[in-house]
Amino acid sequence: MSNFVTRRLKKLTLKATYAHFFDTLKYAFYVIVHPADGFWDLIHAKRGSYSAANFIVFLTLLTQIWRLRFTSFVVMNVHWENVNVFEEFATILLPLGIFCVCNWALTTLFDGKGHLGDIYMGTAYALTPYPLIQIPIIIVSNFVTRDEVAFYTIFNNISIVWCGILIFMAMMMIHQYGFFKTLMFTIFTIFGMLVFIFIVLLFFSMISQGVAYFVSLGREVIFRLN
Which of 51, 128, 142, 220 is the residue whose CA sits 20 to 30 A from 66? Predict the structure, then answer.
């Protein structure tokens, strides 16, 4: 009897988990057309979830790969054999992670209300238009002529600009900033990302040079001993 009750409770818990996931994922469609109310409720009314945010990021990664693999050569000529999937993932994940960390680090010093998790969730939900627009135009690209490539370009740009606007609105609602303060800290965040990348590259450059020095020194010692 106890085993039956346990299994029943597990099923109910699993069902509730899936229901919550789909509800929070469906809420992304509301967010992209009502960004002010949507992002406010996403964080402050707990209408979002990390599982849905992770799914949107994962779908964005897959869409980027599908875009390179299945877009018509008439629109975009890509040599698939030269594509590194992990590098393509990194072109999205690294800027996403660096943006969240830099934005959180800066806004924390200036009365920003958002936590690091809030910034990640808002940014992830803001990526929704990318797969939503890219997947249909990837399919349509295989049926267009060279004279119709402009339509693909327009919708491709719309998906990117839309995501940018949503990220801006997300930061405004999450940190409870005004328009100009959000704009200022968005610029500061981009500058901070560049500084962060420079420091990381400089650090790894110094590490690689140090390793190379000790390797050459070790070889020299071995050569002289022999």
Answer: 51
